[in-house]
Automatic annotation (TrEMBL):
InterPro entries xrefs: AB_hydrolase_fold, LDAH
Enzyme class, first EC level, given as a word: hydrolase
Any one Gene Ontology BP term: lipid storage
Reaction catalysis annotation: a cholesterol ester + H2O = cholesterol + a fatty acid + H(+)
Organism: Acanthosepion pharaonis (Pharaoh cuttlefish)
Organismal lineage: Eukaryota, Metazoa, Spiralia, Lophotrochozoa, Mollusca
TM spans (from-to): 183-212
Protein name according to UniProt: Lipid droplet-associated hydrolase
Family per record: Belongs to the AB hydrolase superfamily. LDAH family.
Keywords assigned by UniProt, alphabetized: Hydrolase, Lipid droplet, Membrane, Transmembrane, Transmembrane helix
Database matches in Pfam families: LIDHydrolase
PANTHER family reported in the protein's UniProt record: LIPASE (PTHR13390), LIPID DROPLET-ASSOCIATED HYDROLASE (PTHR13390:SF0)
A single Gene Ontology CC term: lipid droplet
Length: 383
């Protein structure tokens, strides 16, 4: 999903804050970016349509009939050599572009091919985002990544690969540690022995609902939300996942999250702490506020905020406007602080340059002397 386009050419000047910047939204689970449409549009309009706002769904979470465009397949390095990473991206791109989403794959890997097929679903989501960035976003574009829930875990794994292309990162309700120990995680884990049964009951229900018209499906969704006002993008996003393969991918990813998201990767967080801001909810069943306190204790310099507006973990359902306003204000405060620091540094550099020029070395009769010593010698001659 796109709002605006990035600048086609790199700009060396810092006179305009939107020159090479772009917001990129990484969703939670289910990873249907259409849920974030209102959030993205609000963020786009808040910046006068000057900073593009793009979003990318999780691979497998959206039916192919709802996807547009094509995915470019990796062409390898400039030397025409394909690394193991290129091979993984190539297989992912091939599957996404040529294999119908409803097809259940039986992967048979031989030798090193076993390494390619052994990538976890979460790791595949990371590779999918890297492939998207590599194929569709100009290298000079500085990314402001806005991630939600498990999208923050994916975002964190992206940072070592993005380098300077990552300008800043906002982690909203981040499920990046001890997911199984959260309130919701403990409840789900209690039903883990019945996952097989729950999965097939869920898929059967979705299969039956998929035969209904979109109008009836929307009516069911409105009934579920009761008297709450439901945005059209929420209806479209939910009806788009009345697809057994999409629900299966989402369910499987949820199972894996509980197994993979364990202890906080403190080394990785510490390495990028100056480019990450964390937003924790007061009553978040997936990411308790205690995790935010622990984050602040482990990293005193971390930019951590705690929600004061009773915004729910699934903020896209009712609080897209508020969350977009919070992120926008947050971004501008951080950008202005960075700009101020850069201005101060440039001023210091100019001062240092002036001092260097003032302390140039003069060459006289093949010998070097400091300018102050030369001036002193001339003064003595005058005396």
């Amino acid at each position: 999903m796109k709002f605006g386009e990035p600048s086609p050419n790199a700009t060396s000047t810092h006179s305009s804050k939107d020159s090479n910047l772009m917001f990129l939204v990484i969703p939670g689970n289910p990873g249907v970016i259409e849920y974030y449409e209102k959030f993205m549009e609000t963020l786009y309009l808040a910046n006068g349509k000057k900073i593009p706002v793009w979003g990318i769904s999780h691979t497998g979470h959206v039916s192919t009939k709802h996807m547009d465009g094509t995915v470019k397949i990796s062409t390898g390095s400039s030397a025409g050599i394909f690394s193991l990473q290129d091979q993984i991206e190539h297989k992912l791109a091939f599957i996404q572009h040529f294999v119908p989403s409803q097809t259940s794959l039986i992967l048979i890997g031989h030798s090193i091919g076993c390494r390619l097929t052994n990538e976890t679903s979460l790791e595949q989501q990371v590779q999918h985002k890297l492939l998207f960035i590599k194929a569709h976003i100009p290298r000079h574009t500085r990314l402001i990544l806005v991630s939600h829930s498990i999208g923050c875990f994916i975002n964190l794994r992206l940072l070592p690969h993005l380098g300077k292309q990552s300008y800043y990162n906002f982690f909203l309700f981040p499920t990046i540690e001890r997911l199984s120990s959260s309130f919701a995680g403990r409840i789900i884990c209690a039903f883990s022995p019945f996952f097989f049964l729950i999965r097939w009951l869920l898929l059967t229900l979705v299969f039956l609902l998929s035969f209904l018209s979109t109008r009836i499906q929307s009516g069911i969704i409105r009934t579920y939300f009761g008297r709450s006002v439901v945005d059209e993008c929420i209806l479209r996003a939910t009806t788009s996942i009345f697809d057994t393969s999409c629900v299966d991918y989402s369910f499987t990813l949820g199972q894996e999250e509980l197994k993979v998201v364990k202890e906080l990767d403190k080394d990785l967080v510490e390495k990028h702490i100056d480019r990450i801001s964390f937003y924790y909810g007061w009553n978040d069943h997936w990411c308790p506020i205690e995790f935010g306190y622990n984050m602040k204790r482990h990293f005193p310099s971390a930019d951590v905020r705690f929600c004061e507006n009773k915004i729910e973990h699934a903020f896209v359902l009712r609080f897209s406007d508020k969350m977009a306003a919070i992120v926008n204000e947050w971004f501008h405060r951080i950008y202005n602080a960075k700009t101020e620091r850069r201005t101060v540094q440039n001023g210091q550099n100019k001062t240092n340059t002036s001092e260097t020029i003032h302390n140039v070395t003069l060459y006289e009769n093949g010998e070097s002397e400091d300018v102050f010593r030369v001036e002193k010698k001339f003064q003595n001659k005058l005396l």
